[in-house]
Amino acid sequence: MVLFSVGLVLIGAVFGVGVWMASTSSVEVVAARAAIERGAVITDSGLTVARVAVDPSVPVVPAAQLRSLVGKRAASDVAAGTLLSPAQVTDALPPGAGESVVGVALATGQLPAEPLRPGDRVRLVQTPEAQGEVPATQITIDAEVQSITAASDGQTTVVDLLVPETRAAEVAARAATGRVALVLDSRER
User: What is the DSSP track for 118-184?
Assistant: First the structure.
């Protein structure tokens, strides 16, 4: 009976050590030491290495790649203490060569009720004056949503659109009239 009891204790100890080792397997990853704003150049002093247990489905930057991040730009805002994801680091930010970003202030009814997201493909459409006739030829400009910001008045949404550089002045002029609407195109790629 004593041998049986000792055997059970040993089996329990081995099982306990195995569970402990499996639960404490951690890796070193890159984290933000301080907040990094979107577009800011990433510096060595803004990064740190953290040892954490990470689910394999969560994308992180291994600590060995820390030096390769220095000099690149933040693709999005990164809060202090956040683990860095590869998607948060980029070599260049929009607008790229041949592109411009134009802000368009839109009221309810001028944009879809479906919440817009950065990267959405949209069309800016010229609308007629109030009670006016719809023109026979529609003027539309293809664009991509860069960012969306609710204005402080609560009635207006400012949508930054990424457009071809050659159409930027036209988009800005049409947006200034207030006679435009935004059409969301398919999100399927």
Answer: TT-EEEEEE-PPTTPPPPSS--EEEEEEEEEEE-TTSSEEEEEEEEEGGGHHHHHHHHHHT-EEEEE
User: Alpha-carbon distance 90 to 4, whole Å?
Assistant: 61
Cα separation, 26 vs 55, in Å, equals 10
β-sheet bridge partners, residue 180: 126
Tell me: the pLDDT tens digits for 147-177? Answer: 898 877 778 999 999 999 999 999 999 999 9
Q: With 0.90 as the threshold, say if the pTM is over it.
A: no
- DSSP state, 41? B
Query: Domain 27-93: which topology?
Result: Type Iii Antifreeze Protein Isoform Hplc 12 (3.90.1210)
Tell me yes or no: is domain 99-184 CATH 2.40.30.
yes
Contact 28, 50 (CB under 8 A): yes
